[in-house]
Amino acid sequence: MSGNVAVVGATGRMGRAIMLATHQASGMALCAAVARAGSTAIGQDSLALAGITGEHGVVVTADLEHAASQADVVIDFSTADNALPVIQACINARTALVLGTTGLAAQAEAALEDAAGVLPVLVAANTSIGVAVLRHLAAEATRLLGGTYDIEIVEMHHRHKVDAPSGTATMLAEAIADVRELDPKAAAVCGREGRVGPRSADEIGVMTLRGGEVIGDHTVHFAGAADRIELTHRALDRSLFARGAVHAAKWLVESRPNAGRYGMADVLGLKTP
Ligand code: NAD
């Protein structure tokens, strides 16, 4: 089975990587590349934009509705402001959606719930397969170790990153809090300074490092009375996220799940402990 993919955010770092990954994936074809209205890329060849020479792809457009109507699946890695129109275009066309854009507003989150009522939507702040496995292992380790180990998450990203902690670190903390039946917002301790007192058993430390060009490192520490376990994921190349997004799109096309909200764990068939 072959899946037609529309990429939204075609001019961005991730958009270009996703167009390249779609071109390289078997059984997937780029049918539309959407840039913001007024972009100088409109009218350009999508493959040239993705860095492929000697071949012709589709022409970059700003027509989101038409792109969604042509596609089996839309992959959006653009901006949080653009999430609402993307979700609405997918609802109108009844086209499956992979949403990798982060920092969504409450209105977009609500629209995603509406969309999940009528079509399959896969939402992932991190589309790397490795991080989906790390999340699963961290939840499983939390379950196996019980409440006797202190759990702390350390993340490091490049100096340009504007938000902290990373969405992935927050997602890991939520998965751990879920197993421990804690409120994730109350349990997460993001940084410590001064006389904060002894650590409570129910807190999950989430610490942030920034520097250089680090793409994304996450370590979950389990500290017991007499031993420690550390689970680490290091992203070495941004193409990791693009390949994961295309893998998720292929899963939507091939397994044709019912309308609903899905994540990378569903793509990998990982059962929450
Ligand atoms: P970027 O700034 O390089 O690209 C965003 C692109 O979206 C820009 O080219 C911009 O022109 C375009 N855009 C803006 N409005 C648009 C519109 N209305 N229609 C179409 N395109 C529009 O950013 P990036 O590094 O490519 O990241 C994009 C998003 O993906 C961010 O939200 C980022 O946090 C997220 N991201 C997610 C993952 C993941 O694994 N899920 C990984 C990396 C980045």
The coarse silhouette is: elongated
Fraction in helix: 25-40%
* Structural class estimated from helices and strands: alpha/beta
Instruction: Give a short account of the largest sheet.
Output: 6 strands, parallel
Query: Helical element count?
Result: 10
| Helix and strand element order | EHEHHEHEHEHEHHEEEEHEH
Number of strands: 11
Mean pLDDT value: 95
Strand proportion, as a percent range, falls in: 15-25%
Chemical compounds bound to the protein = nicotinamide-adenine-dinucleotide
Order of strands in the sheet with most strands:
2-1-3-4-5-11
List low-confidence stretches. none
Distance between the termini: 32 Å
Give Rg in angstroms.
20 Å
In brief, what are we looking at here?
The chain has helices at residues 13-24, 46-49, 64-70, 83-93, 106-116, 129-145, 167-180, 184-187, 239-255, 264-268, and strands at residues 3-8, 28-34, 73-76, 96-99, 120-123, 150-157, 188-189, 204-210, 216-223, 228-235, 260-262. It is of the alpha/beta class and 273 residues long.
Characterise this structure.
This protein is of the alpha/beta class. 37% of the residues lie in helices and 22% in strands. It contains ten helices and eleven strands. It has helices at residues 13-24, 46-49, 64-70, 83-93, 106-116, 129-145, 167-180, 184-187, 239-255, 264-268, and strands at 3-8, 28-34, 73-76, 96-99, 120-123, 150-157, 188-189, 204-210, 216-223, 228-235, 260-262. The strands form two sheets. Strands 2-1-3-4-5-11 form a six-stranded parallel beta sheet, sandwiched between helices. The longest helix is centred in the middle third of the chain and has 17 residues, at 129-145. The model has no long low-confidence stretch (mean pLDDT 95). The site of nicotinamide-adenine-dinucleotide has 24 residues, from helix 1.
